[in-house]
């Protein structure tokens, strides 16, 4: 741990929040001298204080300990770079268009790799007027089902959450070429070109 780097990061984050050392110290029930000591690189926060400090400053504990924040490049909202994250415990779905540190149920999640559909994992897509009617014969049982479907174009993403024992069929307004992503709870993320 580099106390100088950690101190500079704490200082910068505190200033972003427009807080004084005393205000930060009062929120944490410590002395403002301790905060001053951290910011000057003369010591580091105690491990027991890190969860509260990260919550107040709005940053991950790992970033505090590394003393730096990794910023993503601005990619102009290109939805084609959309990444999907699904929690294996609660099936929570999260997305990001850039690199992200995402966790759920206490575990860090990795972006799901998308595979091109195979015969056992294929959605039926039928054009109906200006919409796409999507359906499947895939099993929709509690232990094996499609948890979401996402229609992604260059500037938009439409996501439909699915649940076990539902009859999976719905419509998307047709927006041109893109990808249709869907997640099988047993086999992972797939895509089809539209």
TrEMBL record:
The record's InterPro entries line, in alphabetical order, gives: Cro/C1-type_HTH (IPR001387), Desulfoferrodoxin_Fe-bd_dom_sf (IPR036073), Lambda_DNA-bd_dom_sf (IPR010982)
What CDD domains does the database record attribute to this sequence? HTH_XRE
Statement: the UniProt record of this protein carries the keyword Transcription:
no
Q: Domain of life here? A: Bacteria
Entry keyword annotation includes Nuclease: no
Q: Which region is the signal sequence?
A: none
> Under which name does UniProt file this protein?
HTH cro/C1-type domain-containing protein
């Amino acid at each position: 741990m580099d106390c100088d780097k950690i101190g500079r990061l704490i200082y910068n984050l505190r200033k972003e929040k427009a807080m004084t050392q005393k205000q930060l110290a009062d929120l944490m029930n410590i002395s403002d001298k301790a905060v001053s000591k951290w910011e000057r690189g003369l010591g580091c926060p105690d491990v027991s204080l890190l969860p509260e400090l990260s919550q107040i400053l709005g940053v991950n504990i790992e970033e505090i300990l590394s003393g730096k924040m990794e910023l993503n490049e601005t990619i102009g909202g290109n939805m084609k770079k959309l990444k999907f994250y699904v929690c294996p415990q609660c099936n929570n779905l999260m997305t990001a268009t850039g690199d992200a540190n995402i966790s759920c149920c206490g575990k860090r999640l990795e972006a799901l790799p998308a595979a091109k559909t195979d015969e056992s994992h294929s959605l039926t897509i039928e054009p109906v007027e200006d919409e796409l009617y999507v359906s499947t014969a895939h099993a929709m049982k509690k232990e094996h089902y499609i948890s979401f479907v996402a229609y992604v174009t260059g500037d938009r993403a439409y996501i439909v959450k699915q649940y076990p024992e539902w009859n999976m069929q719905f419509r998307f307004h047709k927006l041109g070429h893109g990808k249709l992503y869907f997640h099988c709870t047993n086999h992972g993320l797939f895509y089809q070109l539209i």
